[in-house]
Amino acid sequence: MKRKLKKVGIALFLVLIAIQFYQPALNQNPGQDYTNDFLITTNAPSNISKLIKTSCYDCHSNNTEYLWYDYVQPARMFVESHIKEGKEELNFNEFGSYSNRKQQSKLEAIGKQIKSDEMPLTSYTLLHRDAIINEVQKQELITWINSIKQNSLSEK
Ligand code: HEC
Q: Which segments cross the bilayer (predicted)?
């Protein structure tokens, strides 16, 4: 029995080593164009810009700031799948290229996700403590989101 457990342990260890070699492409595009970026097109104030960049951009933009453990498997696969799904739903770098209708519905969704504490994901804030949004910041964000919602609605 003991010998069998030892074998299983060794096998698991080897699998753990083997999967380290699987490193999917990084979500990093240094030369990218920022003309459609959400924070730039909306002329976001610096406190708002900093909050959204710190708490949302790692999964909702074309550039993720990875931490050392993000490179360790199986964490790497988990992180990369969140980025892929997050970007599909909402890419802040491309927000300005969305139709007005899509922008409005995304603004609505952003407000809701922040209000209900669904975003940023808990699995993310567990290790990225600086991404946690406190109550005061939450209110600031929601007020600002609402203000740009009205602006763009009255324009069109
Ligand atoms: C760790 C990665 C991660 C972070 C950080 C993150 N998100 Fe997300 N987000 C996702 C994933 C994955 C989805 C898609 C699955 C889901 O809805 O849970 C998503 C979905 C969304 C949606 C839903 C889109 C829709 O149309 O319904 C919105 C809005 C959103 N995120 C906003 C935000 C905002 C705002 C922040 C920062 C305050 C943020 N997210 C931070 C990963 C992340």
A: none
